Amino acid sequence: MRSLPSFAFGRRPSRGMTSGQNPQRARRWSETVMDSKKFDDLAQRFSANTSRRRLLGGLVSGLLASLTGHTQTAIAEKLRLGDRCKSGGRKCPPNSTCEKHKCRCLLGFTQCGKSKTKQAGCYDLLNSPSHCGFCENTCLAVVDATCRGGSCCTIDGGECSAGCGPGAPCGQCCSGTCRLDGTCGQVTVCVPSGDACPSGCTPGEQCPGCCDQTCNLAGDCAVDGCVLYGNQCTDSSQCCGAVPCTLGRCRYT
Q1: Count of domains forming the chain
Q2: Is this model's pTM higher than 0.85 or not?
Q3: End-to-end CA distance of the chain
Q4: Which domain, by its residues, includes 225?
Q5: 134-172 pLDDT, tens per residue?
Q6: Buried residues in 202-233 as b, exposed as e (16+ CB within 10 A)
Q7: Is there a single domain that holds both residue 136 and residue 176?
Q8: Are residues 199 and 183 in the same domain?
Q9: Fewer CB under 10 Å: which end of the chain, C or N?
């Protein structure tokens, strides 16, 4: 009577091929065993990779949480003007201090903007280009402009305004003077006495463009506003040193 194979009763055959086994069936069984091993290896690798992914995900989540926490803390640490404060606590905004338990502007600075808002800030209205003289006034809309003494003015090298002529006083210039080249700044090149005053100067008035700082009534640069000897005149009162105006010139004969 022929006996049944051992695996028919739930037992695995031996891994090696015996002389009584079918070679083809033994090969299929060997392939099945190898596929099982590959599956086990794959499952272990997937499990390890999953663990690594979970670990990496946890680290990334922790890092993001930490950064978010620091950012939130930094935001929370920022105080605004008008916020309650205490000595040694969170810092008040620039140019302000904690006074009477509130953030207030330092002496010499003025608050612009509503308290407890991002727009609130402390500014030196005498020198702040963005808040010059008063909170709503800005000098930044004009080229080469800045703030001096609470007024907007043009810096040295900037063009003089249309109302300021070369060599003349100019309130629009921070220096107070329009140079001979038509730019703001202190005069370094001037017109000597006896020569015609710069075009921007008015006869009989101060003229920074003249080396003697004065343009006389005749339109010439002179020490004290008088017409120098030999220059043109219309009246003896214009001539320097009591020299008479003779035939249209300051001279004796």
Answers
A1: 3
A2: no
A3: 169
A4: 190-253
A5: 999 999 999 999 999 999 999 999 999 988 999 999 999
A6: eeeeebbbbbbbbbbbbbbbbeebbbbeebeb
A7: yes
A8: no
A9: N
